[in-house]
Design brief:
By secondary structure, the protein is an alpha/beta fold. Helix content is 39%, strand content 13%. It binds pyridoxal-5'-phosphate (PLP). Pyridoxal-5'-phosphate binds next to loops.
């Protein structure tokens, strides 16, 4: 068979490979602590499961409208009005199977040979993978520890060229849990006004997961860029619904029709039961979200302190999401080797910083979406491994 040239440029998300290896080691009887995969360890609120079961019992087994049933788009609009105080029409909302299709669709819309797309590095690996697949040139926006793992607006704006078509931002960010501060967001928005031809994809999938009173700053709240802003958010992280495969995006008038056409070509629609469950998540009590974040916070504080006590490791306090991104340069082991050794020899699954791009060398991503007793044990194993015990 002769595959298309494009296939060789498609990357992957290492977290899924590490998950597969961790599972196969566990099946061989090894005791593995998986701090690799990025998903909450809680379950969705009960009303979500009830609503989805009811939808199935009520006979919702068929296709739905491609952008999502109208009640879910209305519910998302109400949710955005409530959480961000921003008015969005249901007509601009597209419900997708998770957040990932929004990344794929936005990049497919703007990416082609000769185009340049800016993306966070280290960042969610799918950005760079799909940019390369589209034929466009990926231009990394450095997300550095010295900038608290966020972008610097001046640096970002200096990367723009006449070929730039799309800029991808992610705050709070995967893998390091940094978040853009208001002044840098303001500076970015002011700077980008000179280039109204550039679209922006703001990946805000961790919008509800913050610590220490930090407030979410959404790019949706800047009216100056609304006509070219694509917002990505969803239920996966906020409501612990990663396996339900449901997310939402907000598209400007000029792009919503193209996005819907991509959806029709790709997946037709999200399954109806997930949509009804997702409505219940947005409309029901939000205590499960608050409890989940409080529990992440306790684990985050423990983990940061414990990692900083290990010789060879230093770890910044993340302000959002549920990952720490410790600096491991003091261990004198590169990121990939440490990922492999910790998994194979110490039984702890983590992800090498380089899985998130070249600026991730010297770091490991550790997810703290795992019970505290697992995290304690994992830290002990990491400490023992690094001290040669
Ligand atoms: N964007 C970021 C930054 C992520 O970390 C993830 C998942 O890990 C996604 C998007 C995709 O989310 P979903 O599982 O809803 O497709």
């Amino acid at each position: 068979m002769k595959l298309s040239e494009k296939m060789s440029s498609l990357g992957t998300e290492t977290a899924f490979e590490v998950l597969a290896r961790a599972e196969s080691l566990a099946n061989e009887g090894r005791d593995i602590i998986n701090l690799g995969i990025g998903q909450p360890d809680s379950t969705p609120p009960a009303q979500v499961v009830d609503a989805a079961i009811k939808a199935l019992r009520d006979g919702h087994h068929g296709y739905t409208a491609a952008p999502g049933i109208y009640p879910i788009r209305e519910a998302v609009a109400e949710y955005l009005a409530h959480t961000l105080r921003v008015e969005v029409s249901p007509e601009n909302i597209l419900v997708t199977p998770g957040g990932k299709p929004t990344i794929f669709f936005a990049i497919m819309m703007f990416g082609e040979l000769g185009a340049e797309i800016l993306y966070p590095n280290p960042g969610f690996p799918i950005y760079e993978s799909v940019i390369r697949f589209s034929g466009a040139k990926p231009v990394p926006i450095p997300i550095l520890e010295r900038n608290n793992f966020s972008f610097k607006a001046d640096e970002l704006l200096s990367l723009i060229t006449p070929a730039t078509r799309l800029i991808i931002l992610n705050s709070p960010g995967n893998p390091a849990g940094g978040a853009a501060c208001k002044s840098e967001m303001d500076k970015f928005v002011a700077g980008i006004e000179a280039r109204p031809d550039i679209a922006i994809l703001s990946d805000e999938i961790y919008s509800r997961i913050y610590y220490g009173g930090t407030e979410h700053i959404s790019l949706l709240s800047y009216p100056q860029i609304r006509n070219r802003l694509i917002l990505l958010d969803g239920w996966s992280k906020t409501y612990a619904m990663t396996g339900w495969r449901i997310g939402f995006s907000v598209w400007p008038n000029e792009l919503i029709e193209g996005a819907t056409r991509l959806a029709i070509n790709c997946h037709s629609c999200v399954n109806a039961a997930s949509q009804w469950g997702a409505i219940a998540a947005l409309k029901g009590p939000q205590t499960s979200v608050l409890n989940m974040v409080a529990s992440f916070d306790e684990r985050r504080r423990f983990l940061v302190e414990a990692l900083n006590a290990i010789p060879g490791i230093t770890c910044k306090d993340p302000v959002g999401a549920f990952y720490v991104f410790p600096n491991i340069t003091g261990s004198e082991i590169n990121s990939f080797t440490l990922q492999q050794e910790l998994l194979e020899k110490a039984g702890v699954a983590t992800i090498a910083g380089t899985s998130f791009g070249k600026f991730g060398e010297g770091y490991l991503r550790i997810s703290y979406a795992s019970p505290l007793q697992n995290i304690r044990l994992a830290v002990d194993r990491i400490k023992d491994y690094l001290s040669g015990c």
